[in-house]
Amino acid sequence: MAPSISTEIDIAAPPSAVWTTLTDYDHYPEWNPFIVKVSGSKKVGGKLTVSVKPADKSSGMTFSPTIQTFAPNEHLSWEGRLLGIPGLFTGQHHFILHPTDTGTRFEQSEQFSGVLALVLHWIGSSMYETTKQGFALMNNALKERAEGKPSSGDPAPK
Protein backbone atom coordinates (compact mmCIF):
# COMPACT_ATOMS: atom_id res chain seq x y z
CA MET A 1 0.00 0.00 0.00
CA ALA A 2 1.32 3.41 -0.98
CA PRO A 3 1.95 5.82 1.91
CA SER A 4 -0.23 8.89 2.25
CA ILE A 5 -0.75 11.80 4.63
CA SER A 6 -3.98 13.69 5.26
CA THR A 7 -4.81 16.61 7.56
CA GLU A 8 -7.73 18.98 7.86
CA ILE A 9 -8.79 22.05 9.79
CA ASP A 10 -11.93 24.15 10.07
CA ILE A 11 -11.43 27.81 9.16
CA ALA A 12 -13.94 30.54 10.07
CA ALA A 13 -13.61 32.24 6.69
CA PRO A 14 -15.29 31.59 3.33
CA PRO A 15 -13.52 29.42 0.74
CA SER A 16 -12.76 32.54 -1.33
CA ALA A 17 -10.72 34.05 1.53
CA VAL A 18 -8.87 30.78 2.13
CA TRP A 19 -8.21 30.40 -1.63
CA THR A 20 -6.89 33.96 -1.89
CA THR A 21 -4.40 33.29 0.92
CA LEU A 22 -3.45 29.86 -0.45
CA THR A 23 -2.74 31.15 -3.96
CA ASP A 24 -1.01 34.39 -2.96
CA TYR A 25 2.43 32.82 -3.44
CA ASP A 26 4.33 36.08 -2.92
CA HIS A 27 3.26 36.27 0.73
CA TYR A 28 4.07 32.68 1.81
CA PRO A 29 7.28 33.74 3.58
CA GLU A 30 5.21 36.03 5.83
CA TRP A 31 2.94 33.35 7.24
CA ASN A 32 3.73 29.80 6.12
CA PRO A 33 6.13 27.89 8.42
CA PHE A 34 6.22 24.76 6.20
CA ILE A 35 5.97 25.79 2.55
CA VAL A 36 8.17 28.83 2.91
CA LYS A 37 8.33 29.89 -0.75
CA VAL A 38 6.29 29.29 -3.90
CA SER A 39 6.67 30.86 -7.30
CA GLY A 40 5.39 30.06 -10.73
CA SER A 41 2.19 29.28 -12.54
CA LYS A 42 -1.45 29.39 -11.55
CA LYS A 43 -2.79 27.13 -14.29
CA VAL A 44 -3.08 23.42 -15.00
CA GLY A 45 0.12 22.12 -16.58
CA GLY A 46 2.15 25.02 -15.24
CA LYS A 47 5.35 24.60 -13.24
CA LEU A 48 6.00 25.80 -9.71
CA THR A 49 9.13 26.15 -7.63
CA VAL A 50 8.30 25.14 -4.05
CA SER A 51 10.59 25.35 -1.01
CA VAL A 52 9.68 23.47 2.17
CA LYS A 53 11.14 23.63 5.66
CA PRO A 54 10.46 20.44 7.65
CA ALA A 55 8.89 20.72 11.10
CA ASP A 56 11.91 18.95 12.65
CA LYS A 57 14.14 21.83 11.44
CA SER A 58 16.18 19.47 9.24
CA SER A 59 17.43 20.88 5.97
CA GLY A 60 14.66 21.89 3.63
CA MET A 61 14.28 21.13 -0.01
CA THR A 62 13.19 22.86 -3.18
CA PHE A 63 11.38 21.04 -5.96
CA SER A 64 9.51 21.86 -9.18
CA PRO A 65 6.08 20.23 -9.34
CA THR A 66 3.50 20.54 -12.10
CA ILE A 67 0.01 21.84 -11.33
CA GLN A 68 -2.59 19.11 -11.88
CA THR A 69 -5.70 20.95 -10.63
CA PHE A 70 -6.40 24.67 -10.29
CA ALA A 71 -10.11 25.10 -9.49
CA PRO A 72 -10.59 28.48 -7.76
CA ASN A 73 -12.11 28.30 -4.27
CA GLU A 74 -12.15 24.48 -4.45
CA HIS A 75 -8.99 22.54 -5.25
CA LEU A 76 -5.30 23.04 -5.97
CA SER A 77 -3.04 20.06 -6.61
CA TRP A 78 0.43 19.43 -7.92
CA GLU A 79 2.65 16.46 -8.69
CA GLY A 80 6.37 16.41 -8.03
CA ARG A 81 9.00 13.77 -8.76
CA LEU A 82 12.35 13.31 -7.08
CA LEU A 83 15.04 14.15 -9.64
CA GLY A 84 12.27 14.15 -12.27
CA ILE A 85 12.53 10.35 -12.54
CA PRO A 86 9.22 8.51 -12.94
CA GLY A 87 8.79 5.57 -10.57
CA LEU A 88 11.44 6.67 -8.06
CA PHE A 89 9.53 8.98 -5.69
CA THR A 90 6.40 10.88 -6.68
CA GLY A 91 4.16 13.02 -4.49
CA GLN A 92 0.66 14.15 -5.41
CA HIS A 93 -0.19 17.07 -3.13
CA HIS A 94 -3.78 18.29 -2.72
CA PHE A 95 -5.35 21.34 -1.08
CA ILE A 96 -9.15 20.95 -1.02
CA LEU A 97 -11.57 23.58 0.27
CA HIS A 98 -14.97 22.33 1.45
CA PRO A 99 -17.60 25.02 2.21
CA THR A 100 -19.25 24.62 5.63
CA ASP A 101 -21.93 26.47 7.56
CA THR A 102 -19.20 28.29 9.49
CA GLY A 103 -16.64 28.82 6.73
CA THR A 104 -14.29 26.27 5.19
CA ARG A 105 -12.97 22.84 5.98
CA PHE A 106 -9.43 22.86 4.57
CA GLU A 107 -7.96 19.48 3.66
CA GLN A 108 -4.29 19.03 2.83
CA SER A 109 -3.07 15.63 1.69
CA GLU A 110 -0.33 13.90 -0.23
CA GLN A 111 -0.14 10.47 -1.81
CA PHE A 112 3.32 9.06 -2.37
CA SER A 113 4.36 6.44 -4.90
CA GLY A 114 7.50 4.97 -6.34
CA VAL A 115 10.19 2.58 -5.17
CA LEU A 116 11.83 5.02 -2.74
CA ALA A 117 8.46 6.01 -1.23
CA LEU A 118 7.71 2.37 -0.46
CA VAL A 119 11.19 1.70 0.95
CA LEU A 120 10.98 4.75 3.24
CA HIS A 121 7.56 3.60 4.41
CA TRP A 122 8.74 0.02 4.93
CA ILE A 123 11.80 1.01 7.03
CA GLY A 124 9.68 3.34 9.16
CA SER A 125 11.26 6.61 8.05
CA SER A 126 10.25 9.61 10.14
CA MET A 127 9.85 11.62 6.92
CA TYR A 128 6.12 10.95 6.73
CA GLU A 129 5.45 11.98 10.35
CA THR A 130 7.63 15.09 9.98
CA THR A 131 5.75 16.02 6.81
CA LYS A 132 2.40 15.55 8.56
CA GLN A 133 3.59 17.87 11.34
CA GLY A 134 4.53 20.43 8.67
CA PHE A 135 1.04 20.14 7.15
CA ALA A 136 -0.52 20.80 10.58
CA LEU A 137 1.71 23.85 11.14
CA MET A 138 0.75 25.22 7.74
CA ASN A 139 -2.95 24.51 8.31
CA ASN A 140 -2.92 26.44 11.58
CA ALA A 141 -1.05 29.36 10.03
CA LEU A 142 -3.45 29.41 7.06
CA LYS A 143 -6.38 29.46 9.49
CA GLU A 144 -4.91 32.43 11.36
CA ARG A 145 -4.12 34.31 8.15
CA ALA A 146 -7.50 33.68 6.47
CA GLU A 147 -9.39 34.57 9.65
CA GLY A 148 -7.43 37.81 9.91
CA LYS A 149 -5.62 36.89 13.12
CA PRO A 150 -1.93 37.72 13.54
CA SER A 151 0.29 34.66 13.13
CA SER A 152 3.66 34.10 14.69
CA GLY A 153 5.30 35.61 11.61
CA ASP A 154 3.21 38.79 11.62
CA PRO A 155 4.23 41.92 13.48
CA ALA A 156 2.36 42.62 16.69
CA PRO A 157 -0.71 44.82 16.34
CA LYS A 158 -0.15 48.50 17.16
- Overall radius of gyration: 15 Å
Q: How would you spell out the order of helices and strands?
A: EHHEEEEEEEHH
Number of strands: 8
Proportion of strand residues: 35-45%
Q: Biggest sheet, open or closed, and with what strands and sense?
A: 5 strands, antiparallel
Indicate the structural class.
alpha+beta
What is the molecular shape? globular
Query: What is the overall pLDDT average?
Result: 89
Uncertain ranges = 153-158
The percent range for helix content is: 25-40%
Intertermini distance: 51 Å
> Within the largest sheet, what's the order of strands?
1-8-7-6-5
Number of helices: 4
3D architecture notes:
- The structure is a single chain.
- The chain is an alpha+beta fold.
- 25% of the residues lie in helices and 36% in strands.
- It has helices at 15-22, 28-31, 115-122, 127-146, and strands at 4-11, 35-40, 48-52, 61-63, 66-71, 75-81, 90-100, 103-113.
- The chain has a five-stranded antiparallel beta sheet.
- A hairpin with an 8-residue loop joins strand 6 (75-81) and strand 7.
- Helix 1 crosses helix 4.
- The chain is globular and about 40 Å long.
